[in-house]
């Protein structure tokens, strides 16, 4: 059975691939077809330790959580404002 730590991880528009140094992984962009970009415009990728990638993923999830919370507050304000302008509507936030 192959070692799962040696398998590439595909994550949306990029993938994480292990390097010969077992402690690091490299993130590289993929094309629409799923292959790694090649040619003069290809970037070599970003190499970091697994702990760095986990910390980065945590920061992305936290930013998404903050964005969704802000959007929810804005939606609630919009609903309350719309209800306040209509005399027949019941404002759920009062």
Mean of residue pLDDT values: 77
Q: Tally the beta strands.
A: 4
C-alpha Rg (nearest Å): 22 Å
Helix-strand topology string: EEEEH
Low-confidence stretches: 37-41
Number of helices: 1
Q: What is the beta-strand fraction?
A: 15-25%
| Largest sheet entry | 4 strands, antiparallel
Roughly how many Å apart are the termini? 61 Å
Q: Which strand order do you get reading across the main beta sheet?
A: 1-2-3-4
Molecular shape: elongated
Range of helix content: 25-40%
Q: Based on helices, strands and strand pairing, what is the structural class?
A: alpha+beta
Identify the notable features of this structure and list them briefly:
single chain; 94 residues; alpha+beta; four-stranded antiparallel β-sheet; 19% strand; elongated
Structure write-up:
The protein is 38% helix and 19% strand. The chain is of the alpha+beta class and 94 residues long. Strands 1-2-3-4 form a four-stranded antiparallel sheet.
Q: How does the SSE layout of this entry go?
A:
Elements: E1 9-11, E2 14-18, E3 24-29, E4 46-49, H1 50-85
Antiparallel strand pairs: 1-2, 2-3, 3-4
